[in-house]
Amino acid sequence: MQWSTIAATAVGTVLGVVSTLVADHSRWRRDRAERDRDALRTAFTEYLTALAQARDAFSRAEPSPGRVGKAHLAIGEHGVYAAQQRLELVAEQPIVDRAGQATLSMLDFHGVVVAGHASDSGEYAHAWRAARQTRSVLIEEMRAALRN
């Protein structure tokens, strides 16, 4: 047997093993990236759903001077804090910061509603717009994160 045949067989075997390892690693990275994106998508959806439920409940709330300053309790009842904490585990810091701003904006909206400001008042309109705007900015950042 010639050495060239043995060498060619050895080189072919090594190349085959290396190419299999590279393909497996590439597949693993792609699968991991997809799982990470799914985890992000789930956390984003849970947070936005909780925030929307809180917003809807707050917009129907009756004025209640006793509930002024208790927005943290009200927003916690709708699962916003729990969803925000899950988001903090999987999202990048800019998105976590935007989510915090959206939560604070919702707290402000709750305060305006329970303070007795009617839906046609300037205070109500301002708080509603601020809540919508912070949510819109957050959604855009979430979309950008999911595209990456």
Describe the secondary structure blueprint for this structure.
Elements lengths: L2 H57 L11 H7 L2 H11 L2 H22 L7 H26 L1
How would you describe this protein?
The protein is mainly alpha-helical. The chain has one domain. It is 83% helix and 0% strand. It is built from five helices and no strands. It has helices spanning 3-59, 71-77, 80-90, 93-114, 122-147. Helix 1 (3-59) packs antiparallel against helix 3, helix 1 (3-59) runs parallel beside helix 4 and helix 1 packs antiparallel against helix 5. It is rod-shaped. The relative contact order is 0.12. The mean pLDDT is 88.
Keywords:
148 residues, 83% helix, mainly alpha, rod-shaped, single chain
**Quaternary structure classification:** single chain
State the helical fraction: over 70%
Beta percentage is under 5%
How would a crystallographer describe the biggest sheet?
A: none
Number of helices: 5
> What is the chain-wise order of helices and strands?
HHHHH
Mean pLDDT: 88
The whole-angstrom Rg is 26 Å
Low-confidence regions: none
Number of domains: 1
Q: Which structural class fits the helix and strand makeup? A: mainly alpha
Number of strands: 0
Cα distance spanning the termini:
54 Å
Q: What overall geometry do the principal axes of the alpha carbons give?
A: rod-shaped
